[in-house]
Amino acid sequence: MYWKSCPLYRVKSKRKLSYLLKVPVESFKNVDENYISENFEKDGRNLTNPSDKLKVVLERILDYLFMLKIPPYEYGGIKGRNAIQNVQRHVGHGFILRTDIRHFFPNTKYNNVFDFFRNKLDMSIDCATILSLLTTNIARNSDHRSLAQGYPTSPVLSLLAYLNLFNEISSYANEKGFTFTAYYDDLTLSSNDIISHSHLRMVKHIIEKYGFEAHPRKTKLVNVSKFQSKIKITGVLLQKDGLYVPKKLYKGLHESVNQLNLALNSRQGISNKEKKKLVEQVRGCIAAIHSINDDTVFQGYEDMARHLEKSIV
Q1: pLDDT 10s digits, 6-47
Q2: Contact 154, 136 (CB under 8 A)
Q3: What's the whole-model pTM score?
Q4: Helix, coil or strand: residue 140
Q5: How far apart are CA 75 and CA 84, in angstroms?
Q6: Is the pLDDT of residue 244 over 90?
Q7: Dihedral (C-alpha) 186, 83, 227, 289: value to the nearest 10 degrees?
Q8: Is 231 within 8 Å of 224 (Cβ atoms)?
Q9: How far apart are CA 242 and CA 228, in angstroms?
Q10: Within 90-219, where are the H helices?
Q11: Which of 131, 166, 158, 155 is nearest to 60 (CA)?
Q12: CB count, 10 Å around CB of 292?
């Protein structure tokens, strides 16, 4: 990794940091009070919404971090890369090893982030501290600072803080002739040769070496070369010959269309905000399906969405 390509490299003064982040140097005196965020829980996960002020700063930090050459195996939260491309890398391979690093974000702690800014980017202690405070928080039901699920900087910082972990798995995959990709903490290895339990044990060993655990329910070996055998990776069904849309996605589209249809035929007033939400849901589902398979035409649904959109005043 060529660290010097990042403008944050060797920043030693708060004044230089304030110039790069385009914020007053005085705002660094109490980061948590000047750059607030809101913690909440959704579907059993502790999430965080940065304030508008903090989000602007995080986006600037992210732009600088993207000037580093992000390894080609990482697809999560990286500009120009997405979940579909992640799965496409494994099309045509008959054997899949899939695992997930359990509690990865909550266990990527303040010290891990500080170590990256201080030792990899060679920043001064006070500047590394400021950036670490900006990019981490104390989540609900937690007693330590860690990467926040909801900050735009968290995906790339989780990779950079544990680059040795990901690189070690990548090196092992290359040595064995496997294809390796990562989508956040979701790891996939594939090959046309058998991936045995000994390979799985080695991947688990590397993960445990860095203080993490391979999620037991999300870790599996699958032979997709068998007739109609498939595996779900980052929300997409993978068979050896290609990608398939999960039934859950079609179900979500039909449910959204039913709600949209009720809105079109309702005699009661529906707010513009609710109409806009329904239109976005339907279009979002259609876009997600087309990103996997663009053979299906949803012209009728798109016309309904357009009709409801025209009623927004």
Answers
A1: 999 999 999 999 999 999 999 999 999 999 988 887 777 778
A2: no
A3: 0.82
A4: coil
A5: 9
A6: no
A7: 140
A8: yes
A9: 11
A10: 110-115, 125-135, 154-161, 163-176, 197-209
A11: 131
A12: 20
